[in-house]
Amino acid sequence: MRIQLPHYLFMSKIINISSASFIALHSLAYIANCDQITNIKTISQTINMAESHVAKIIQLLVKYGYLKSTRGPKGGLVLIKTPSSITLLEIFELIEGEIQIDNCPTQCIKCPFKTCIFGGLPQKMSMEFLNYMQNKTLQQFINENK
Asked: Is 50 contained in some domain?
């Protein structure tokens, strides 16, 4: 028999990558890699995400100056910034907010122990993720996937 615990007792993931972040990162990579103007329908089919969700994220990327959107039969989306000037971290944080590296993954205010039971592993993993995202540009990602 398994005990059912209330949802608030569970720890969150060490690194949470939402579908919004997935869409933003993959859409920008796809658009940057396109030889021609593309549209939301094509992007949503390519990354296998709902067109309505892709449209919402694309609106944000247009609003914050990453993409230009042109209406009409010959319209579509183009990248405004150069892929080499865009880090994966800036896109991730645009969607998720600034990454916080906490000392305790459970936000425990007063720990009864001298050392963390997790041995600092959550901080190490978060720092590795942060460093990767900070040092990887959209252009580097595209080059690796040609």
From this structure: yes
